[in-house]
Amino acid sequence: MMMRFKNNISGYTLIEIIMVILIVGVLMAIATTNFMPRTEKARFEATVAEMQAITYAIAGNPDLHHDGARSDFGYVGDIGALPINLDALVSNPGLGTWDGPYIDGDFDSDGYKKDAWNSYYIYTDTLLRSNGSGSNIDKLIALSSNALTDNNVEGIVHDAKIQPPGTHNSSLCARLIYPNGSGGMADDSSGIRADGSFRFSNIPIGNHILKIIYTPDSDTITQTVGITPGRDSKLDIVFPADLW
After folding, report:
1. Distance CA 112, CA 123 (A)
2. SS3 of the chain
3. Which of 1, 100, 177, 186 is the most exposed place for a label (fewest CB within 10 A)?
4. 222: region left, alpha or beta (phi > 0 left; psi from -120 to 50 alpha)
5. Per residue in 75-94, pLDDT tens?
6. What is the mean pLDDT of residues 177-188?
7. Domains of the chain: residue spans and CATH
8. What percent of the chain has pLDDT over 90?
């Protein structure tokens, strides 16, 4: 006698399969919705951090100090001018005072020029822009190029009695040494007025050497002058002797 068994195991119906697909699709959509903002936020934060690093490379980090004075002025502090492009931050364009690379080693040779969306930064004058996200992310390197390259150095010279030079001013000279913007060094001279005042204009940011020379006694005062963006430097210089 042949025994017959009834198969009670049934397969998934088409409706059940469709429902599973719909549920999986909804879950994936939710996961994608939650994941994308985190990804975009990470890209935004990485881009902002890189743009800040580029800004420091160009104009220096104002938070870096040595012996109480700002010590970092970036590319402009060494050259006396803004870079013509971002390549100049890692490759010397043939300038004698170039002391780079100015970009930290965390960035590769080309990647620092692209944002986190792999779009090249737009660099114009003192504006750095990322548009890879579909909207602009802007970073100002300075309020203007003049703030980086066109500052004043002013001072008053006295002797040990805090007396102005008067008629002795013709024996006094001020010299300021700073990068000239073309890869060399400028060595400018300025006369000193009877009241002891002198002035230099169109000076780039950076730490520059100032010398006050009194010819008859061959006395010279030499000091470093720190020029920060958009701020005139005002100095009070006293010779440690009664010269006049």
Report:
1. 12
2. CCCCCCCCCCCCCHHHHHHHHHHHHHHHHHHHHHHHHHHHHHHHHHHHHHHHHHHHHHHCCCCCEECCEECCCHHHHHHCCCCCCHHHHCCCCCCCCCCCCCCCCCCCCCHHHECCCCCECEEECCEEEECCCCCCEEEECCCCCHHHHCEEEEEEEECCCCCCCHHHHHHEEEEEEEECCCCCEEEEEEECCCCCEEEEEEECCEEEEEEEEECCCCEEEEEEEEECCCCCEEEEEECCCCCC
3. 1
4. beta
5. 999 999 999 999 999 999 99
6. 97
7. 45-140 (no CATH), 151-238 (2.60.40.10)
8. 76
Q: What confidence tens digit (pLDDT) does each residue in 130-139 have? A: 999 999 999 9
Residue 162 in tokens: 């805090």
Identity of the amino acid at 106: D
What does the pLDDT read at residue 5?
Answer: 43
How many residues are given for the chain?
A: 244
